[in-house]
């Protein structure tokens, strides 16, 4: 690490929480970025002892799990093909997954991807839940 970066890190360590929050706000405005996507979960966790509102807790969820809940017998083959395409599993592994529902298909995916996966599986006839 260069001495310039080390100096900046040392200066950041000395900031109070209020100063750090103001710094984040100024960086967001100056560089037109949203720090909540990458740093937000850590920043939201720190004040939790002071009573973080439920609205803020909902905002911090950025990763979702897609769970296959039910596979009708007459739709099993179509769902199996979709699962193979979504997961890149082999035929045997995908068949075992489809036959052992409820099973998580994708973990830690974005809300948009989770919704797309849900729609694709539901079109094939499956029952899907996003957690």
Description:
It is built from seven helices and three strands, in the order ααααβααβαβ. It is α+β, with helices and mostly antiparallel strands and 131 residues long. It has two domains: 36 residues, no CATH class; 67 residues, Ribosomal Protein L30, Chain: A (2-Layer Sandwich), CATH 3.30.1390. Helix 5 packs across helix 6. The longest helix has 15 residues. About 5% of the residues have low confidence.
Work out the strand percent. 5-15%
- CA-CA gap between termini: 40 Å
Alpha carbon gyration radius: 22 Å
Kindly give the count of domains: 2
Runs in which pLDDT lies below 50 for 5 or more consecutive residues are 38-44
What count of helical segments does DSSP give? Answer: 7
State the fourth-level CATH superfamily of the largest domain. Ribosomal protein L7/L12, C-terminal domain/Adaptor protein ClpS
Overall 3D form? elongated
């Amino acid at each position: 690490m260069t001495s310039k970066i080390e100096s900046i890190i040392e200066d950041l360590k000395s900031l109070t929480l209020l100063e750090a929050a103001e710094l984040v706000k100024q960086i967001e405005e100056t560089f037109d970025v949203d720090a909540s996507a990458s740093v937000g979960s850590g920043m939201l966790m720190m004040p939790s002892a002071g009573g973080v509102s439920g609205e803020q807790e909902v905002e911090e969820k950025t990763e979702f799990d897609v769970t296959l809940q039910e596979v009708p017998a007459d739709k099993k083959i179509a769902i199996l093909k979709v699962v193979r395409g979504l997961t890149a599993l082999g035929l045997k592994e995908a068949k075992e997954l489809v036959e052992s529902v409820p099973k998580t298909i994708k973990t830690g995916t974005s809300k948009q991807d989770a919704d797309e996966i849900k729609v694709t599986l539901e079109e094939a006839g499956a029952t899907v839940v996003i957690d």
